[in-house]
Amino acid sequence: MHEYAFFLGCIAPNRYPGCEASAIKTSEKVGIKLLPLCGASCCPAPGAFGSIDLNIWYAMAARNVVLAEQMDRDIALICNGCYKSIYEVNHILKHNDELRDGVNEVLKEIDMEYKGSIDVWHLAELYYDPKICGVDKIRESVTRPLTDTKIAVHYGCHLMKPRKERHFGDSDHPMWIEELVEALGAEPVQYRNKMQCCGAGGGVRGFDLEHSLDITNEKMINLQEVGADALTEVCPFCQLQYDRGQVEIEEKFGIKYGLPVLHYNELLGLAQGMSPDELALDLHAVDCTPFLEKIL
Amino acid sequence: MAENKEARIGVFVCHCGTNIAGSIDVGAVAEYAKTLPNVVHADEYQYMCSTPGQTKIMDAIKEKDLTGVVVAACSPRLHEPTFRTASAEGGLNPFRFEMANIREQNSWVHMHDREGATEKAKDSVRIAVAKASLLEDLIPKSVPVEKAALVVGGGVAGMQAALDLGSAGIKTYLIEREPSIGGRMSQLDKTFPTLDCSQCILTPKMVDVGRHPNIELMTYTEVEEVEGYIGNFEVTLRKKARGVMFPDEAEAKGIVGGGCNGCGDCAEVCPVIKGNKFELDMAPRKAVYINHPQVMPLIYTVDFNTCIKCGLCVEACGDKKAIDLDMVDEFVKIKVGTAILATGYDLFPIENKTEWGYKKYENVITGLEFERLICASGPTGGHLIRPSDGETPKKVAFVLCAGSRDNTGVGKPYCSRFCCMYSLKHAHQIIEKIPGAQPYILYMDIRSFGKMYEEFYYRIQDEGAKFIRGRVANILEDATTKNLHVYTEDTLLQRPIDLEVDLVVLASAVQPSAGADTVRKLFGVSNSQDGWMLEAHPKLNPCGTTTAGVFLAGVCQGPKDIPDTVAQAEGAASAASIPIHMGQVDLEPYFAQCVEEKCAGCGMCVNLCPYSALALVEKEGRKVMQVTEAKCKGCGTCGGFCPGGAIRMQHFTTPQIVAQIDAFLLGGEQ
Amino acid sequence: MAEEWKPKIIAIICNWCSYAGADLAGGARIQYPPDIRAIRVMCTGRIDPLFIMKAFQDGADGVLVSGCHFGDCHYLEGNYKAAKRMFLVKNVLKNIGLNDKRLRMTFVSASEGAKWAGVVEDVIKTVKELGPSPLKQFEK
Question: Residues of C with CB below 8 A from B75's CB?
């Protein structure tokens, strides 16, 4: 069993608890144990906090890392935004003595010290890495294949970019999450401009909702063109933007899409036989029933 | 090689205007020099390299009976020859001169520490005086120069250089690794700004090269090995197996009226089809092929990597018996006095800039592919078509600086120089050929620097090309129409744009030819920081290299357009012809010498010499080492090793170097 | 303020690469501290280990040897031979109680002016951290 300290973030536990439940249960089936990481705070949201004060961003993220260092476990998380904060800050502080010393000055006040002793991983990359799990193992864990469904993938921004500071290869035409979707028995579909942002991040959803929905709408148009049954992503914030966002787009622009949006963990949960109840799919703003009818 | 009588050194400290005087107290240094042992004369002057400056040296040599001269000024790499000549004119052996570099390695790099710089200058003078006190008379060795030259690369640069050398009466070997000369220029359709047909203006030169009595053209040939030095290069060439005989080769084998006449009967029957590299794989060729009808020489070539040796071509060739499928590579040794490298360029693999979708989206092509498509002798007979459906594009986006001026670490940091101009030319061509065509030039800057280039830019603007200033962020393909959506920002209007076009042309960056690195190392030529071959001096010696007798021409030294390429080729040819015309060249006498009394005959130095210049010989019943001066390049590798101190390196002797070390560390103000 | 100790560092550099690179740094006006004096040889292969020992014996605090990159030596292999000798000298220095970091060999090409400046800065910094050469106390 590969053990990790599970960093939850904010949106999953508060809005889509199914993401949390599915992450824990599906990982266990493929040899990954997610241990509770107690006392964690907001990652902090990279766009919102990072735009205001970088020092706060470093310190808060470092504190979350220290909690895992105290458990002597690497961190696994399920959100692109959390990934940017925690992975990047961990990486920066490991290589910049001055910044690290500055952060430790702050952490001293709460009796903590950042040591740089652990690594940070997105659960999706752990699923993909054959040394930890791998696409084949995912396929083998599937008991209810999502046959005859067309699923589009939204990669999001902070997972793969900036390319120089990531290790996921080509950020213009990636296909690895499609492989993970295929392993569930579904058919991944391509759509125009799949790498465009969902519109939520960078503080945009918080500061200018309509503008962010404009961006989301562009993606919805492209998704509608290819007739996807569902959209999947690996970021609860993207999920919020697409899910609640479709309801908001209907309210503000009068367009209804009705495209179910599920986190990859939720899809994997369904494919491994978890029930819609266990996954709290009824908390989704866009009704998942049309998709569920195809697979149940 | 007289040992010094009592050393009498003259020191001259240069102000170099404010270049040195601005950071260093020159007067103090000159005064300090007077206090040094062996110094009988010390002076300072504004510009020592000027006539009055040099006259000071000459006068002092005579008046003060100097045995050595030290000039504290710029780098010896710049003016050592100048002052050696001045010393010689003053009656002193030119090798009794030493320079202290107090500019490039002092005043220019310590501009904010006058005290530190001045102290360092004094130390440098002290070091130089210590060496000068031990210098001796040396005579440069004169070697004869082989009356032949080698040009590596048969593009327009190599061809021009070969023509100039040949016309100057010098036997010139022009070697080219492709089956035909012509290089990149023969792949172009039209040339800016005159809009001449490229192959049309090139063909006369190609023909001239082919029939010039002094040019020996060897195509499908590469450099295998280089030995020797200026005046006496021994180059081994690999004549790759062509599989096809020239008429004279066939004659030599007794086949009367035989050899290839370019009829093409072989290619007609050949069953193997491959991509034609000349056409950038947009057209097929057979395993036995010529790239295009105007090749020089007009001889077919068998690509042995893909030939299946079915023999159908041999049958088709009939009585001419030109094809020999058992041919193997042949090695030829030539002797030349000088060499010119003209290896040209390749395109940067622009698929590495994944955001633009080259090789992913069919309708994204490079500038060179555009040339072939629009060229009447190209794969589509000059009809510009979209690769996806063969339709004629109307809206075409030209992405400039694609992969150039790129500091992300993926592309090249430099400007590729001629892409702005050829993109303007391309825009003109589609306006001219395609009714209703609309070119979009997506640029960062328009660099129209040359003669009549700015006027050409006005013309293209007037003809209706649209110019959008911004870096293209992203290109996406419409899955149904295969049109491209070009996402960029119009920075002048300050808004983002989604431009839908039928075809995208990427003006890709250029980089040194594959294999250029191997060739330059064979000739001892260095790289510049940007990867192109290093010239001797970027301003004052752009055709030369630091290896005597080796010169550079064309894009291999840095991106440039055709006029600059031809100009540099002519310059390189001129420089390369000088030693040949003079008939002899002086080698710097930094040779190794064996001090026989100390030599134990162990022979370990013999293996150290990379030029095989050392050998053990019998002398008076014992073995001692002997130096072949013609082969010795004076590197000192043997001298640095000999445990018995039996090897003396002229002008860099152990006593001289130790004197320099002692002078710095033990001398100095107490 | 007491007079700050100024390190005595000697550099022996090859004509074709490192000396040219150092000149290039000058041409580009890249600034670096003046605590280094350069001696020119045609090739680092010329450097007899005894030169280095003499320098330390004379009281040098640091010695820098700089030549062409491997594969680019103007005389083909001189830099390889020099590198081998420097490893030998470093061992000798360790044996006589001198920190072998006082001897440094670097590879700077004719086009690497900025690199030369960086190398000099780094060597001076290293030597300053190591302090004056312990051999100085034996100076007469």
Answer: 19, 23, 26
Domain(s) labelled CATH 1.20.1050.140 in chain A stretch across: 2-123
DSSP type of residue B535: P
Residues 6 or more apart in contact with residue B637 via CB below 8 angstroms? B608, B609, B610, C43, C45, C46, C75, C77, C78, C81
Which residues of A fall within a CB distance of 8 Å from B355? 172
H/E run at residue B581:
helix B562-582
Most C CBs within 10 A among B25, B109, B606, hence the mutation to make, goes to: B109
pLDDT, average across residues B359-385 = 96
pLDDT digits (tens, 9 = 90+) for A241-285: 999 999 999 999 999 999 999 999 999 999 999 999 999 999 999
The pLDDT of residue A120: 98
Chains C and B physically touch (3 or more Cβ atom pairs below 8 Å): yes
**Within B176-333, where are the H helices?**
198-211, 247-252, 265-269, 312-317
Give the residue from C6, C15, C35, C39 with the most B CB atoms within 10 Å of its CB, the best one to mutate: C39
Q: Which of B637, B649, B658, B670 is most worth mutating to test chain C (most C CB atoms within 10 A of its CB)?
A: B637
What is the per-residue pLDDT across C79-114, written as a single tens digit (0 to 9) for each? 999 999 999 999 999 999 999 999 999 999 999 999
Q: Which amino acid is at B477?
A: E
Q: What is the distance between the alpha carbons of residues B289 and B267, in angstroms, rounded to a whole number? A: 6
**Start-end of CATH 3.40.50.11810 domains in chain A:** 141-295
**8-state DSSP, B244:** B
d(CA B158, CA B513): 14
Tokens of B146: 């082989």
What's the CATH class of domain A141-295?
A: alpha beta
In order of B261, B276, B533, B572, C33, the CA distances from B222 in angstroms are 24, 21, 18, 20, 47
Say if residue B534's pLDDT is above 50: yes
**CA atoms lying within 13 Å on the CB side of residue B8:** 13
pLDDT in tens, B266-287: 999 999 999 999 999 999 999 9
Q: How far is B649 from chain C (nearest CA, A)?
A: 9
Please give the average per-residue pLDDT across B202-209, as a whole number. 95
All residues of chain C having their beta carbon less than 8 Å from the beta carbon of residue B110 are: 31-34
Residue of A103, A107, A72 whose CA lies nearest to A90: A103
Are A57 and A46 within 8 A, CB to CB?
yes
Of the candidates A78, A55, A112, which has an alpha carbon nearest to the alpha carbon of residue A5? A78
**Token digits of residue B230:** 């200026």
Q: What is the pLDDT of residue C1?
A: 42
**Could you report how far apart the first and last alpha carbons of chain B are, in Å?**
36
Cross-strand pairs, B584 = B144
Whether B474 sits inside 8 A of A172 (CB atoms) is yes
Which residues, including other chains, have CB under 8 Å from residue B630's CB and lie 6 or more apart?
Answer: B141, B143, B232
Name the band, by pLDDT with cuts 50, 70 and 90, for residue C139: low
For residue B558, how far is the Cα from the chain centroid?
8
pLDDT at A102 over 60: yes
CATH class for the region spanning A2-123: mainly alpha
Rounded Cα gap, residues C8 and C61, in angstroms? 5
Chain B: list its partners (3+ Cβ pairs within 8 Å): A, C
Residue type at B476?
A: L
CA separation for the pair C106, C90 (Å, rounded): 14
CA distance A197 to A212: 10
Q: Which two tokens stand for residue B446?
A: 């328009």
CB contact under 8 A, A173 and B476: no
Tokens matching residue B598: 């100390």
Contacts of B666 in chain C (CB under 8 A): 58-59
C3 band by pLDDT with thresholds 50, 70 and 90: low
